[in-house]
Every structure is written in structure tokens, then in C-alpha cells.
Amino acid sequence: LLIVVVIIGIIAAIAIPNLLAARRAANEGSAQASLRTIHGAQATYQNTIGIGDFANALTDLRSQSLVDTSLGSGDKSGYAFAVTRQLRNNSNSAQHCAFATPEAFGSILGVGLRDFGVATPGVIYSAPAPSMSVMSCTGGTLSSSVPSAVTGS
Fold first, then answer.
1. For residue range 70-90, what is the model confidence (pLDDT) as tens digits?
2. Strands (DSSP E) along the chain, which ranges?
3. Model-level pTM?
């Protein structure tokens, strides 16, 4: 019986880190997909309800049924989402940015290791969490001290 318990313990020690890594990867993938959804919803909003301007908040997109209630609340798959916009004027077109940051970060119990952002052009960028303070939106483009485009997802 003791040998069986030891074997189960060894298997658990091997499997649990892989399970946590798979959960983090799934949460990060969900955050990227949610940013794509927000970007598409913003384009729809701009060309219909917004009359050339983007939505000011996720609740605006949710009230028009452009995003689901979970994403519209700003919280999905352990990530917190936020949107910003710049209204159009005589010299600039309307711009928007959306951000996703893990509610808990870290390699052991965190839901994700990276922050994500998307701006008007639609390229999703990532930066090591926590970077919301360094990832910002200016004129519809993302800037960060360490951004990198997300590829292959």
C-alpha cells in the first residue's frame, strides 16, 4: 500500500505543474481571442451605432449585444479587460485600444504570465505581466517598454 501511495505521489508531482501550465496557456489564449472579439465589436460599433466613433466602455459593446455578458463585464477567464478610445476630430480619425491583464500573475497559481493589448490596426501585443502601467495607448497605437507582437495564435 505504501508503494502505491508513493507512486501516486510521484505521478502527481509530475502532472500538476503541467496541468497548471496548460491552464495558464488556455487563459492566455482566451484573453487573445477576447481581444480579437473586442476589436471586431469596436469596428462594428464604429460603423453602425457609433457614427464614426468607437465605444467608450465594454458595457457599451455589451448593451448592443456585440460582446457576451462575461466579456462585457470586463472579466473573463481570469483576465481583466479595459477599453479606451480617442474621439475623431478635424485632424485625427477615431482610435481605440483594449487591454487584458491577468487578475493573478505568477508561475505557480497565476492565471497568466502576460498582459495583452490591441489597438485600432488590430495587431495583438503582449508584455510580461504586470505591465499595464507600462503598456499604454496613444493615438490608437500601443506603446510599452517591452512589447512584442503575438504570433501564431
1. 999 999 999 999 999 988 888
2. 75-76, 79-86, 95-102, 114-119, 124-128, 136-138, 141-143, 148-149
3. 0.82
